[in-house]
């Protein structure tokens, strides 16, 4: 039987009334996270209802925009001019239909928990003096609370998501991204061999208190690996997807990271463009970066999808592969000529002057080879 989503709003509102019902709040968050993972089409409607319910019961207040500060623990680092302008147009036409969420500070100022784009649009573009806001107390772990909000309800940029997730992983486990990658990769390969890789993904929907026991059943017992997997599962993330979709974001070249932050390049496109590397092109990083920049501009200008981006990258790589093959043939021919040149019978007929000249030329060739 389908679940009635309005009940979630009622439960959430009831849970807010007293601090003693914290467990009920956590259970509700887990329930909403399960719905998000299931990609329920009704969830967005339910979230809107939740905001409206909170606003009507707790109360919305007008806050001076100059007293509001961005959240340093904000997972979303990429806010493009296009996104702000889109919000400006909406606020100008529709007004502020949804309050931002603020955390009051002891110095009389407010910290943004949710709604930074709306605040930027209102303050810097529209010139508003006040903005409607819902006030909440400071969460115990501001970064985790903000991250869970964005993972569940926002279209978070893939790079921002990866960086935010692994900041949280480091905070909880002490693992750097490189260490996390090694442990995660080893664990996933073992699960693939044992045929339990899909069982790990199912733990996203398991109850938090059951996950540790089920990890042991899957043969995952090393403490650091358990902590890593539990951290990812608690954020509602499938560890296998984290390995293929998030970790690669952290090792992207800086030019592609910049394109994602400033120009709206998508993560999937960036991963394809990243294959234009010195290794694949057999060229220097300077040449590879030049090709990536040109390809990135083509992708953005023509709004290429991932498939078309792959075609573009394949064409560029083919150009360098063809050049490399041609050059390799030339070098092979040169080697054959040297083999013929140094045959003993040929050299015996050379004059002393010719031998000296040949030695000098060969010495020059050797010096060039050393530099290469």
List the helices and strands and how they pair.
Layout lengths: L5 H11 L5 H16 L5 H16 L2 E4 L3 E2 L11 H14 L5 E5 L5 E5 L1 H10 L4 E6 L6 H12 L4 H16 L3 H18 L2 H6 L5 H10 L5 H12 L4 H12 L3 H10 L3 H7 L4 H4 L3 H17 L4 H36 L2 H5 L3 H20 L1
Parallel strand pairs: 2-4, 3-5
Antiparallel strand pairs: 1-5, 3-4
Helix pairs in contact: 1-2, 1-3, 4-5, 6-7, 7-11, 7-12, 8-11, 8-12, 10-11, 13-16, 14-17
Return Rg in Å: 29 Å
* Estimated structural class: mainly alpha
Number of helices: 19
Order of helices and strands: HHHEEHEEHEHHHHHHHHHHHHHH
Helix content: 55-70%
Structural summary, described in words:
This protein is mainly alpha-helical and 372 residues long. It has helices spanning 6-16, 22-37, 43-58, 81-94, 116-125, 142-153, 158-173, 177-194, 197-202, 208-217, 223-234, 239-250, 254-263, 267-273, 278-281, 285-301, 306-341, 344-348, 352-371; strands at 61-64, 68-69, 100-104, 110-114, 130-135. The chain has 5 domains: 1-58, no CATH class; 60-150, Conserved hypothetical protein from pyrococcus furiosus pfu- 392566-001, ParB domain, CATH 3.90.1530.10; 157-250; 260-323; 347-372. The protein has 19 helices and 5 strands. It has a 5-stranded mixed beta sheet. Helix 6 (142-153) packs antiparallel against helix 7 (158-173), helix 7 packs across helix 11 (223-234) and helix 8 packs antiparallel against helix 12. The protein starts with 5 loop residues before the first helix and ends with a helix. Residues 1-25 have low confidence and may be disordered.
């Amino acid at each position: 039987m389908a679940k009635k989503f309005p009940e979630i709003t009622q439960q959430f509102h009831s849970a807010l009334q007293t601090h003693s019902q914290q467990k009920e709040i956590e259970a509700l968050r887990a329930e909403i996270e399960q719905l998000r993972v299931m990609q329920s089409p009704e969830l967005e409607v339910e979230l809107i209802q939740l905001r409206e319910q909170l606003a009507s019961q707790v109360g919305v207040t007008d806050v001076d925009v100059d007293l509001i500060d961005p959240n340093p623990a904000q997972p979303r680092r990429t806010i493009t001019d296009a996104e702000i302008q889109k919000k400006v147009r909406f606020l100008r036409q529709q007004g502020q239909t949804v309050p931002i969420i603020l955390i009051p500070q002891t110095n009389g100022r407010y910290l943004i928990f949710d709604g930074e784009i709306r605040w930027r649009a209102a303050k810097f573009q529209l010139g508003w003096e006040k903005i409607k806001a819902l006030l909440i107390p400071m969460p115990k772990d501001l970064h985790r609370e903000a991250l869970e909000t964005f993972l569940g309800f926002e279209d978070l940029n893939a790079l921002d998501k990866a960086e935010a997730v692994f900041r949280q992983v480091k905070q909880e486990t002490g693992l750097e991204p490189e260490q996390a990658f090694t442990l995660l990769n080893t664990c996933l390969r073992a699960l693939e061999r044992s045929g339990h890789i899909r069982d790990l993904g199912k733990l996203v929907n398991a109850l938090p208190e059951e996950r540790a026991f089920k990890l042991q059943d899957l043969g995952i017992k090393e403490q650091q690996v358990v902590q890593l997997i539990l951290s990812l599962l608690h954020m509602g993330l499938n560890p296998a997807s984290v390995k293929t979709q998030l970790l690669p974001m952290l090792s992207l070249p800086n030019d592609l990271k910049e394109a994602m932050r400033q120009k709206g390049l998508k993560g999937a496109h960036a991963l394809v463009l990243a294959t234009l590397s010195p290794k694949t092109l057999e060229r220097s990083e300077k040449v590879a970066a030049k090709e990536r920049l040109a390809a990135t501009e083509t992708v953005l200008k023509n709004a290429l999808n991932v498939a078309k981006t792959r075609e573009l990258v394949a064409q560029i790589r083919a150009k360098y592969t063809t050049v490399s093959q041609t050059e390799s043939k030339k070098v092979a021919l040169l080697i054959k000529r040297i083999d013929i040149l140094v045959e003993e019978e040929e050299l015996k007929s050379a004059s002393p002057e010719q031998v000296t000249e040949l030695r000098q030329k060969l010495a020059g060739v050797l010096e060039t080879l050393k530099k290469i």
